Amino acid sequence: MRSEGPQPPSTDECAIVTRSACKSFLDGDVIAFQDLDLSIRKQEILCIVGPSGCGKTTLLRAIAGLTSLTSGRIEVNGEAVVGPPEGVATVFQHFGLLPWKTVFQNAAFGLKIQRKPQAEIEERVRHYLDIVGLQRFADSYPYQLSGGMQQRVGLARALAIDPSVLLMDEPFAALDAQTREILQEELVALMQQPGERKTMVFITHSIDEALIMGDRIAVMSARPGRVIEMIDVPFAWPRDVEEIRARPIFADLRRHVWTLLRNPAQRSKSSSEVA
Ligand SMILES: Nc1ncnc2c1ncn2[C@@H]1O[C@H](COP(=O)(O)OP(=O)(O)OP(=O)(O)O)[C@@H](O)[C@H]1O
Ligand SMILES: [Mg+2]
After folding, report:
1. What is the pLDDT of residue 269?
2. Structure pTM?
């Protein structure tokens, strides 16, 4: 099952490139991740799975320009990341909504920062609240919404700025299992709508979610995080989530990733192979 993956794409086909990226904390005592060489194609969905503490969130923050690397380089759309790059939106696990603002005002937040004209803000926010099914809740406050609805607002806020790159850090982890499956299906449906497909880095602890969402899955080792295997997900788009789940290859791949994650011996062997 070990997959070498296809040849790495050339740089101009890529939306995100990391080169020998390394991030450490506490004067090098804690190495979050190291030797990360990722090439993420335009409009590709890369899912990242890995043990807690292997540097996934730190990597996402580095791509978003919210933290700097210790060494190496990250490029987004061909430009070195030295601060938050243009056209990048992030969705975090805990929604990050402003409790004193309405759903509409929260969803409009990124556009306000970009100082877009009010008419454009109205149009775009209404459009994306409609897409995430919250048009009737525009004047509600976050406390009046369920967790799933709050995360829909987070998604609408990210999509409203029309990002070319969407960074998602366990966006559905705080939700109950049923809501999570519904939002997975909705996001898959959205990503196959014309004009809505983004380059996406999607961090999750759910192997099923990675298989449903991803074009590829990067499996990371325990800290210091490295990519121990890059898996091509063999499901074509458009995807029917129910149908994919029922395929034998889905169960085989899930077992394979699970084995990689829980077998430290295999991890360190693979990790040194890659390094
Ligand atoms: N600001 C910081 N200062 C010191 N250490 C940090 C800081 N941020 C992260 N770390 C450390 O870096 C490592 C990676 O953290 P990170 O949050 O990226 O892991 P993660 O893979 O996202 O974990 P999880 O799956 O639990 O979310 C951890 O050991 C963490 O303690
Ligand atoms: Mg994390």
Report:
1. 45
2. 0.90
